[in-house]
Amino acid sequence: MSTSVPTGNTYDKYGSKNPIERRLMRGFFSALWHVLPREHPATVLEVGVGEGEISAKLRALYPDAHIVGIDLHDDALAVGWRTRGFVGVYADIARLPFPPLAFDLVMAIEVLEHVPEPSAALAELVRVSRGRLVLSVPREPIWRVANMARGKYLADLGNTPGHIQHWSRRSFAELVGSQLDVVSVSTPFPWTMIEARPRGVRYNGSGRSTESPAVPVLPARQA
């Protein structure tokens, strides 16, 4: 993602000790595990990998998969990636440095709300996918109402810093459906999560694409 993309806050919701937030995250991960493919992907891309919390869980779930994460340039993140043994790349979501049909599973978890041109970003995710995509965003207006209820970002009517796109369940499904076949839509409070797949890609009985290029060659700008 380019440096012009608002990065938002850096609150670690995954490591929160607040019992309410922990309960919300349990609901989120329950929904996420439900939509992840049962057939193990050979290649996985996580866009907006951050500290790598989700990629770490994916690595445990799919131990043989080649997992790549991309994010904005951040030296602190890179240190964390190396500590965890992750493959991380600095890249722009609108210009992904990978060939078409490179990944069996593409994930963008709470990313698109930060992107100035979400349709263009979505088109890039579609381009590099040969299997499933899992996308999630804050569900509006519930997200902002929940922020205001806990006294957060009142001057901005509950809008989290860096959130420049806002979708309801229906409007996000319409955005995704404009370029992909929507498989399922779930709403773990307060998010919308969509499982989708590219149009026109042939699948075998397991749900994996029959088109299987080699593991993508990583660009030079690795962290």
CATH architecture of one domain: 3-Layer(aba) Sandwich
Kindly name the structural category: alpha/beta
Helix content: 25-40%
End-to-end Cα distance:
14 Å
**DSSP strand tally:** 7
- Class of one domain, according to the CATH hierarchy? Alpha Beta
The CATH homologous superfamily of one domain is termed Vaccinia Virus protein VP39
Largest sheet: 7 strands, mixed
Task: Enter the CATH topology name of one domain.
Answer: Rossmann fold
Structural account:
The chain has 223 residues and is an alpha/beta fold. Helices cover 29% and strands 20% of the residues. The protein has helices at 19-35, 53-61, 75-84, 118-128, 142-149, 169-177; strands at residues 43-47, 66-71, 87-90, 103-109, 129-138, 181-186, 191-197. The mean pLDDT is 87.
